[in-house]
Amino acid sequence: MATIVKEKPHLNFWQIFNMSFGFLGIQFGFALQNANVSRIFQTLGAQIDDIPILWIAAPITGFLVQPIIGYLSDRTWHPRFGRRRPFFFMGALFSSLALFAMPNSSALWVAATLLWVLDASINISMEPFRAFVGDKLPAEQQTTGYAMQTFFIGTGAVIASLLPYFFTNVLGFSNTAAEGVIPDSVKYSFFIGAIVFLASVLWTVLSTDEFPPEDIAKWEQEKLKSSGVFNGIIEIVQGVFKMPKVMLQLALVQFFTWLALFSMWIYTTSSVAQNAFGTIDTTSKAFQDAGDWVGVMFMVYNGISAIVAFMLPMLAKRIGKNYTHLLCLIIGGMGLISMFFIKDKMFLLIPMVGVGLAWASTLTMPYAILAKALPPNKMGFYMGVFNFFIVIPQIVAAAILGFFIKHVFESQSIYALVIGGISMIIAGLLCIIVKDKK
Questions:
Q1: Is 438 inside a domain boundary?
Q2: How confident is the model at residue 234 (pLDDT cuts 50, 70, 90)?
Q3: Fewest Cβ atoms nearer than 10 Å: which of 191, 311, 361, 417?
Q4: Residue 374 included in any domain
């Protein structure tokens, strides 16, 4: 007899809390990666114009992994283990192993390889979490569900970003090391991140159940039709060309948003070291101090995103999700551009407030707009396809930013942040074309 879930029940605060808690760990790994991988690459000998190409692992793995994981998770069901939770757990396990290994890299190629492993594993955990909200929550609670995820993303990133600074300035760990060796402050931050990642995801896996497919008999028939690698590839390709219209509208917004964010993540350390700390010497104490301060800056923008996460749904009710996103992105873009003019490290915290608003909205509004436009039986797949519009701009940035910084801007990486700010403002203006249907 078919099992049909006609109406999703409203969940209480703690149920939404538990189902989102895994994002605390996911963002621990993501924040440590964003704030420290460029620093690790440069410590191991990478030149400033090599960094974007070394980072290209992250968007390429996302491009390949997320639609596949979404497709597979849509076609997974077990009465005990559920649909998305097996992917949460396996991604967390491999991410934790990569986090333990990354700061022990003995050569640049080892660190670059581990970035591939780490980013692929984070994507395996993260993509099903987006579909999880659509699976579990009725339409009127989905914005709250994504806001709760944003809260844990911000909270996890605050703690993770601050760890190297904390180990250096509070616990007295060494912030410098011999040439080609990662400092202890970074190493132990990654070790803690590995533990928190796995523990947080396990909390969600063990505390949250899942609904079966809406109609199991129909679901099994569709799964049988699409079984096999060849049929699966055909269905994925066909699905890409049948995207809902609102996804295409959001695609342009996402492209310019993530071009900006990727520019910030890969160039903030070198920009701050050069522009505010007056050094490009990766073996100097000033460079490592700049790396720690970037962790503080990233802590601020993630902290702001956690604080405003639950305010955004209220603003969205008044002016609409698309105009809420427009406002936040323009403020964030202005913040990135302003960093060009700031030479004092303390004042660099001010632009991070605007970046935090943009980050909170980026993690909430596009998904809240999109979720109600997706067919439930393909929620995971389309959330994975939506990731195309996150990774394509990152691939573009990785391909061209190094050339422009070296040959046009004479290796002054601060200009990458200016480009990012302009791109984020363009993304905000493009929100006008997004039709957020009631």
A1: no
A2: low
A3: 311
A4: yes
**Does residue 4 form part of some domain?**
no
Residue-number span of the structural domain to which 196 is assigned: 13-433
Domain holding 137: CATH number? 1.20.1250.20
Question: For the chain, what percentages of helix, strand and coil (3-state, to nearest 5) are there?
Answer: 80, 0, 20
Specify the pLDDT at position 437.
62
**CA–CA separation, 397 and 395 (whole Å):** 5
Tokens standing for residue 375:
């067919």
pLDDT at 94 over 80: yes
How does DSSP classify residue 347? G
pTM recorded for the entire structure = 0.71
Looking at the structure of the chain, the number of domains it has is 1
Nearest to 364 by CA among 423, 393, 319, 322: 322
Work out the pLDDT band at 1, boundaries 50, 70, 90: very low
CB 399 within 8 A of CB 259: no
* Contact predicate 423/333, CB 8 Å: yes
Give residue-wise pLDDT tens across range 187-219. Answer: 889 999 999 999 999 999 999 888 776 656 665
What is the spatial distance between Cα 243 and Cα 102, in angstroms, rounded to a whole number?
37
> Taken in order 151, 157, 163, 165, is the CA torsion positive or negative?
negative
